[in-house]
From TrEMBL:
It comes from the Bacteria. Transmembrane segments: none annotated. Its EC number is 4.4.1.13. This is cysteine-S-conjugate beta-lyase. Residues 22-373 form the Aminotransferase class I/classII large domain. Belongs to the class-II pyridoxal-phosphate-dependent aminotransferase family. MalY/PatB cystathionine beta-lyase subfamily. Keywords: Lyase, Pyridoxal phosphate. Pfam families: Aminotran_1_2. One of its GO terms (molecular function) is pyridoxal phosphate binding. It comes from Halarcobacter anaerophilus.
Length: 379
């Protein structure tokens, strides 16, 4: 399944739309077939089911509870969970109801590009704190973070694990960040969609699991879509122990029509969270792709470097030694290498300069071909 190559150009794939001979390694979905066990269960379900209006299966909630307990050592109650259609639509509703127009929303840049869009489309202000970086290692300087705050700072929009740098935050970092937000009356909106794609000795810790006090200011957003190759489904959930915050968000989801389940998406979560073997095989394959990327760039003496990510199937490539601006690099990637990466400037006009994000979730043979073209072009 993971080695098998197939043509996505005629599948209505957003990533491959108008690709015209360019390999798109920009959009964060996988060029693998979804688990055959999972798709077979879906087919079987559809054959037995009518496709009328549906409500959320109670097993949807118990599956999330069990998954969080087993994989993230987080015990949550049923009433702490909301169904929602996607992480981004959930964040959109949350920003609308828990902050006000012209409020400042803090992000730790470079940060997932959609965060900027969500903040600005809702007439809030992006408050950008630049993470401290040294040879690909990123951390928070809390004195500088404190100095960056304004009186209008109401929330932190947080990715954990971090997209695009692939950082898995440690317990100590999360605890310190959580206490910082408590001390400064800042809500935490934590996007944890990559939490099940963590490698090696790293361990994802939900920031809301650190303490009851931190949990009370947190809303956690998650979905099996990235981990189980289901991003085409409208499927996610929100977790919060703060009943008042959760109730407000639920009302806004209803107002925006973002909490309507279809005839199959809750079923897909229930069944996806049974696919542990497939997920383990996937992570093993992805990590080998990451290692091969590192080896090939070094083999061809490329000036491109990167720190091995601790999570996700996204690599934060460092082109700074090339001494070209991102526009020229992007042109060379498309015209000479026939590949499209995501421009680092989309993640921060300042911290993203000299960087590009690359998706390595594709069959290895195809990845190697693309990597050789990139490595040779940027020697």
């Amino acid at each position: 399944m993971l080695k098998q190559s197939f043509n996505r150009e005629k599948t209505n794939s957003t990533k491959y739309r108008n690709s015209k001979g360019i390999t798109p390694l920009c959009v964060a979905d996988m060029d693998f077939l979804t688990s055959s066990s999972l798709t077979n269960k879906m087919i079987k379900r559809l054959k037995k089911s009518t496709l009328g209006y549906s409500y959320v299966d109670c097993n949807f909630y118990s599956s999330i509870q069990e998954w969080m307990k087993q994989n993230h050592n987080w015990k949550i109650q049923r009433e702490y969970i909301l169904f929602s259609q996607s992480v981004l639509s959930s964040l959109n509703s949350t920003i609308q109801i828990l902050t006000e127009i012209n409020d400042d929303i803090l992000i730790l840049s470079p940060e997932y590009h959609a965060f900027y869009y969500l903040i600005e489309r809702n007439q809030r202000n992006v408050l950008e704190y630049s993470l401290e970086e040294d040879k690909g290692e990123y951390h928070i300087d809390f004195k500088k973070l404190k100095n960056s705050l304004t009186k209008k700072t109401k929330a932190l929009l947080f990715s954990s694990p971090h997209n695009p740098i692939g950082k898995v935050w440690t317990y100590e970092e999360l605890e310190k960040l959580g206490k910082f937000c408590l001390q400064n009356n800042i809500l935490i909106f934590s996007d944890e969609i990559h939490s099940d794609l963590v490698y090696s000795q790293n361990k994802h810790i939900p920031i809301a699991s650190i303490s009851s006090e931190i949990s009370n200011i947190c809303l956690t957003f998650n979905s099996p879509s990235k981990s189980f190759n289901l991003v085409g489904f409208v499927l996610s959930y929100i977790i919060s122990t703060n009943e008042i915050l959760l109730s407000k968000v639920n009302k806004q989801l209803t107002l925006n029509l973002y909490n309507k389940v279809n005839a199959i998406n809750d079923f897909m979560l229930i069944e996806a969270y049974k696919e542990k073997k497939w997920l383990q095989d996937l992570k093993s394959y992805l990590y080998k792709n990451i290692v091969i990327t590192d080896k090939l760039l070094k083999k061809y003496n490329s000036k491109i470097t990167f720190k091995i990510p601790e999570s996700t199937y996204l690599i934060w490539l460092d082109f700074r030694e090339i001494s070209l601006n991102n526009t020229i690099i992007e042109e060379k990637l498309i015209n000479n290498c026939k590949v499209r990466l995501l421009n680092g400037n989309d993640f921060s006009s300042k911290e993203g300069n000299g960087f590009f994000r690359m998706n390595i979730a594709l069959p290895r043979k195809k990845l190697i071909k693309v990597l050789k073209q990139i490595a040779i072009e940027f020697k």
